[in-house]
Design a protein that fits this description.
The chain is an alpha/beta fold. The protein has 2 domains: 6-209, Spore Coat Polysaccharide Biosynthesis Protein SpsA, Chain A (Alpha-Beta Complex); 215-307, no CATH class. It has 11 helices and 10 strands. Helix 8 runs parallel beside helix 11. The longest helix has 22 residues, at 215-236.
């Protein structure tokens, strides 16, 4: 039996409306030697039926976890089942181009490496997107491509690949990252520590149906990511992320004071108010208002990890 060139592992929770777009994109792939394993982290919306239907004409199968166990557990379950030589992680809200699988496979014809394709976020026309989301997305990609090789592991996320040999060398995703965020950064850090270089592949930029469409959602995710960052720093040490820059100037004091005084519930209220006001504000002021809340939420999450739930 000829070995599969690639296995695509898709962690999903509540993805019944997102998965059809991904499945349509997989149906158009130019590479033919692949399989997709969709790991449903507790089926709350009939996602399994969506995948089962696709499995009638595509090499797509499901692994169903009986209850929500978190993204790390879902990823590990999928990679355990994978048979391909190249293992691709693909989030369920991506819309890969026809050459997606072929491009990932092509990047692994030489020495071992970890491959990162950045997201190209698509935003609905919300006040948040106009004030903050679109310009920050473009800024993120510029900074990523300019990052030195020693820092590229920070961009390990939901459009990445390694060979099976490299995955086994680095090991499973850490289930201590139970909620939103940083399980991927942790894995990228361990990949770099194992001496495997991380490369950013411009040809693998992939359309992403972004979930953070409002300030309220973005603030919540920043808070949860802050709590997960604390798990990372406890595990690897604060120095793993480089020297921390203390808050600077009036802006730094504002962010620090807000984070010190306000938890997730208070920040949610502020974010809701911001969403109602952004389109009535000058663009520069609207951008600053969102940035203030996002930065404060990340710092507040580091200080209040107990406020983070598990079902995310």
């Amino acid at each position: 039996m000829t070995a599969l060139r690639a296995s695509i592992v898709v962690p999903s929770r509540g993805g019944a409306t997102r998965l059809p777009h991904l499945i349509d994109a997989l149906r158009a792939q130019t590479e033919t030697s692949w399989e997709a394993i969709v790991v449903i982290d507790g089926d709350i919306d009939g996602s399994a039926a969506v995948v089962d239907l696709a499995g009638e004409d595509l090499p797509v199968r499901t692994v169903i976890l009986p209850e929500n166990q978190g993204r790390s557990a879902a990823l590990n379950a999928g990679f355990d089942m994978a048979d391909g030589d190249v293992l691709i992680r693909c989030d369920d809200d991506l819309c890969p181009a026809p050459g997606f699988v072929a491009a990932h496979v092509a990047r692994h014809t030489g020495n071992p490496c970890g491959v990162v394709g950045l997201y190209r976020n698509e935003f609905p026309p919300t006040p948040y997107a106009r004030a903050y989301g679109q310009q920050r997305d473009e800024q993120f990609r510029r900074e990523a491509y300019a990052a030195p090789e020693s820092r590229r592991w920070r961009y390990w996320a939901g459009n990445v690949s390694v060979t099976r040999e490299t995955f086994d060398r680095v090991g499973a995703y850490d289930t201590a990252f139970r909620t939103y965020g940083w399980e991927d950064v942790d894995w990228g850090y361990r990949l770099q520590a194992a001496g495997v270089p991380v490369v950013l592949a411009p040809e693998l930029e992939t359309v992403h149906q972004v979930a953070a469409t409002t300030t309220e959602i973005r603030v919540r995710r920043a808070f949860y990511a802050g709590a997960a960052r604390r798990v990372f720093e406890t595990k690897h040490g604060v120095g793993a992320l480089g020297a921390a820059m203390p808050p600077r100037g009036v802006w730094g004091r504002l962010v620090e004071r807000t984070a010190a005084r306000q938890g997730l519930a208070d920040l949610h209220v502020r974010a809701q108010r911001a969403d109602r006001a952004l389109d009535r504000m000058p663009r520069w002021a609207a951008e600053k208002r969102v940035a203030w809340l996002v930065e404060a939420a990340g710092l507040s999450g580091q200080r209040r990890p107990d406020e983070v739930g598990t079902d995310v």
